[in-house]
Every structure is written in structure tokens, then in C-alpha cells.
Amino acid sequence: xxxxxDDAAQTSFGYRQVPQAARQNLVNRVFAGVAERYDLMNxxxxxxxxxxxxxxxxxxxxxxxxxxxxxxxxxxxxxGDVAIRYARASGPNATAVLCDISPEMIDVGRRRVHAxxxxxxxxxxxxxxxxxxxxxxxxxxxTIAFGIRNVxxxxxxxxxxxxxxxxxxxxxxxxxAHVEVPILDRxxxxxxxxxxxxxxxxxxxxxxxxxxxxxxxxxxxxxxxxAKMIETAGFARPTWRNLTGGIAAIHSAWKI
Length: 256
Ligand SMILES: C[S@@+](CC[C@H](N)C(=O)[O-])C[C@H]1O[C@@H](n2cnc3c(N)ncnc32)[C@H](O)[C@@H]1O
Description:
The protein is α/β, with parallel strands linked by helices and about 260 residues long. It is about 45% helix and about 25% strand. It has helices at about 20-35, 40-45, 50-60, 80-90, 105-115, 155-165, 185-205, 210-220, 225-230, and strands at about 10-15, 15-20, 70-75, 95-100, 120-125, 140-145, 165-175, 235-245, 250-255. Strand 8 and strand 9 (about 250-255) form a beta hairpin. S-adenosylmethionine binds near residues 27, 75, 81, 102 and 151.
């Protein structure tokens, strides 16, 4: 039997199987639809926890507070939460590029960066994590928060992260993970499948995008498997730290 062409191959979009070539458009439709309400929904869905997790991400990155130049790319940066936190936590020569594939999410991000008075330090670029519009070795650090599970080919996104980092650069990924605490896992299931889609329907008028968000979390590899993928991409010292019993995790690795 000949192997199917890559484009005809099926992949998961939440719990549905869709052609690989169609998946990114479906993801883009989700984020185009939720962009204006994304920040509010994030707070409602996570009970504000995503703010603490993002604070942890920046604490781990530990950007320079003095005058040392430092360049971060925040991929799938959406409405700018990570880039803005980073700029506030760092010195005047620490800059960031907020990169995302969705014009609608970037639009909200650009407005928020401007409102925070951070546009000299944070620039915005539209780009796909699988083919970043940046030269090799251009950044000291790469972050991606709740973004990588939306990417069709995770291995390509990791290869791109490796390519754009300078030698000595840091890779940090904040993503939903697999809960490792009994009882919490059942509560979390209830919250994910019963509460979140209803919240989506009530607050945003549509349960469907939120069903995808929940399902895509369950399809994402567990912490150990994802750490292995990071290592396969060429990174050294892959480690992770569970947050809130493993609801989310921060993966860290280095390009050396
Ligand atoms: C759940 S949001 C996370 C946004 C932000 N990082 C945060 O933590 O609030 C996921 C983001 O990934 C972006 N995204 C999806 N696929 C992408 C891709 N292939 N390349 C870059 N960004 C992508 C979406 O447009 C969306 O803004």
C-alpha cells in the first residue's frame, strides 16, 4: 500500500479527525472568533490561574533587569500577556517580538501593548510557529504559552524554536498538561467538559471553540513525552515543572 500524501493524512482537531492541511485554518477560525473576548474568557475559564502561571514563566525566564540587551520571541503570543509581563519585569534594553499567526489576536495584542506604553520595546509580527519569519540565531529566549498544542506539526515548531535561538538561548513552553493528582483529575474533567463549554456559550455565545480548546488539551502529549520531543529537536537539559497539580506545566530547555 503506498503511503498517503502528507496533505491527505488525517490529524486530530480536538477529538475530530481532519485533513492535516485543513487543521491550521480551523484553528485560525477558532481564534479569529474569540479574539475580542479571549482575555475575559481566559480569566473565567482558569479562575485567574493563567495569570499566576504566566508570572511563573517570567520568573523562570528571569530576564535582565539592568541595561544588558536581551531579545525574546514570544510565539503564539496572542493578546500579549507574556510579552507585556516580560517587558515590565526587565530592563530598558530587553525587547520582545510578539509573533502569532492570527491577525485578529495580534490586533488585540498590538492595542494592549500600545495601551501599556510598551510599543518601543515590543514589536508585533505575524508568523507561523512552523516557519518563523526570523533569521537563524536571532533571539536569546523563545517562549510559547498555550500555543504549541494548536500547531499542526509540533516537531516543526520545535525545530524552528531551535533555529531562531542563539547558542546559549533558552526555550520555555507553558502548556496545559496532564493532571497527576487523584480527585483533582476528576474535578478538572468536570470543569473542562461541563463548565467551560457552558461558560463559552454564556459569555461568548458559542460553546464550539471552547470545546476545541478543552479537547486539544487532552490530545497534547503528557509531560514526559513532550520533554522527549524537545530533546529530539536538539535541545539540551529538558526539564519541566508542574503547576497546580499538573493542570499546566512549564517545559524548559537550552540550545547549547
Ligand atoms: C490559547 S492562545 C494563547 C495566547 C497567549 N500566548 C496566551 O497565553 O494568552 C493560542 C494562540 O496560538 C496562536 N496560534 C495557533 N496556531 C499557531 C501557529 N501555527 N503559529 C503561531 N501561532 C499560532 C493562536 O492564534 C492564538 O493566538
